[in-house]
Amino acid sequence: MDKAEILKLNNIKKRNTIATLKLLRRLDKVSRVELVKLLNCDRATITRIIASLLQKGIIKQAGNISSEGGRPRENIQLDGNFRYSIGIQLDANFITGVVVDLNGKILKHKTLQLEDHNNRKEFLKILDEITVHCLDFCNREKLLGIGIAAFGTFANENKTLENVADFHALENFNISDFFSQKYGIIPEISDTATAHANYITGLGICRNAGLSLLFCLGRGIGCVPLVDGKITFCKYSHGGEFGHTIINIDGVLCNCGRHGCLEAVASSLSMAKQLQLNDIAEHQRFSEVVKLYTKNNHAARKVVESAARTLGIAIANQVNSLMPDEVLLTGELLKLGNPFFEIIKKTVDEYAFPAFSRNLVLSNCGVGENHVIIGVATLPIDRMFQNFE
Ligand SMILES: [Zn+2]
Q1: Distance in Å, CA 20 to ligand 1 centroid
Q2: How far apart are CA 366 and CA 330, in angstroms?
Q3: Which terminus of the chain, N or C, has less C-beta within 10 A?
């Protein structure tokens, strides 16, 4: 047997502890008996892990529940106040900052809109304002770190921004340097779709076996593969640029400078553009698309239905390439409701090979308000769980 294949006793203990902490984050309160069942392990292991976690203060007693004919069972739960984490979501329209507790519960939330999509100075001023607001709220001794959800691609391991299609003024922005020089904190950086996926996997919403494809549909369009409930990262831990795959070589110009990208016809902003809603503030344009579509406006129906079909074909292409067990849809576009989702589903059925679509589960995970920001804020918490001794 290869040396690397041997699991040391300490590694097993560590993995059991991580699994327990992750499960506790998903649940509110739970008894030891329930933990034994859910983790499919023996009672002695759970008793040992719980005693150690209680002693370190990361979990706490949470009252008793009476059990039929026996002793009342003692519940335990994560102590949310054990540590905090900050999440910051960067977008071409806004910057949001949150402080979350260990359960991922939002304790502080601030969003500021950006007026100008070409003003790096304004962007950095607002980013500083949001960051200081979150840092001021936290007891620094309890702060685990800062997670940042960014847009654009990453040029290198340092995650310097590149190809920022919706905000060209941010080209070559080094987020890590900005945070380490200004606040003395090296942040954990993820792209927006991967942050969304971190939320989904953290809560165990996807299958824990096989391949799931998570599609995030909004101003940006992303696809993250999840293998056995875990995120599959591409180079530089980026989720890739599914939204800029070309679906019509002679199509309209995309913000990335090429023609016919999926985002150029099927994103929230491109639908508003096709409906010529240019007089409305950019961050309110998609609400107007939803309003018009819901009212059965003819032009809105045409644009939205065409976008849904294009998305369906793009998703079917991924299904035919990767043969997933499950497809999950989430994001702002799902505000368009069930008729929009059904067109996508029907189109996937139409274009995916029957052998691949026959047993495919295609689910609507909803709009996912706050999922990106919570998903990215939990990156420092995940790291702490991984290294918790
Ligand atoms: Zn593009």
Answers
A1: 42
A2: 5
A3: N
